[in-house]
Amino acid sequence: MAAIIHLMQTAMPPRASSSKTAIIAGILAGLLAAALGATYVYQHAPSAPQERPAAASAGKTEARQEEQAVTALMALPELKAWAAHIEKASSGRAHGAVMLTAPEPRLVEGQSYYQLSFFENTPEAAHRWESFLVTPDGKHILVDDTASDEVLSLERWRKESAPMDRVATQ
User: Fold this and answer.
1) Residue 47 has what pLDDT?
2) Per residue in 124-160, pLDDT tens?
3) Of 33, 111, 114, 142, which has the fewest beta carbons less than 10 angstroms from its beta carbon?
4) Full-prediction pTM beyond 0.90?
């Protein structure tokens, strides 16, 4: 054992400690542990052949609908402009991103909506620019005005907030 340790020390010279290296190593170790845990749970879970296909199908449908909602939201000219502005202003260090901000859909006038937000994603943090409600098919988009606790139509939001002006002033 001592010979192995000695060989490793001579083959790899010591390096200065780096916080980035430690962070990356921690993330990789966490991902590996999560993958091993998921594999163990999957292999040791009781099988229920009748339920798995239905659950898998429902999960795929939900994922596809969430993707449709995100795609519809990112197609808005305001979000395209915001994302381009963030990239340019940060020289590529920050990016615009849409994230699901609540696990459960929200009902508005009997219609189910995904709760999504547009964020400026920087290496240090994510900064929310705006919150939206999007139907699973992506055909209806509302703005969740958290300041006034109102739900606005896109037209009213555009008129009252002038969202395109944000890229001109920031």
Assistant:
1) 52
2) 888 999 999 999 989 999 999 888 888 999 999 999 8
3) 33
4) no
Amino acid letter for position 154: L
Return the residue matching tokens 């990789």: 28
Domain spans of the chain?
Answer: 67-169
- Report CA Rg, the chain: 23
**Cβ proximity of 97 and 118 under 8 Å:** yes
Under 8 Å between Cβ of 85 and 53: no
Q: Is the pLDDT of residue 46 over 60?
A: no
**Angle (nearest 5°) at CA 70 between 155 and 67:** 145
State the SS3 of the chain.
CHHHHHHHHHHCCCCCCCHHHHHHHHHHHHHHHHHHHHHHHHHHCCCCCCHHHHHHHHHHHHHHHHHHHHHHHHCCHHHHHHHHHHHHHCCCCCEEEEEECCCCCEEECCEEEEEEEEEEECCCCEEEEEEEEECCCCCCEEEEECCCCEEEEHHHHHHHHCCCHHHHHC
Reading the block at residue 42, the tokens are 């999957």
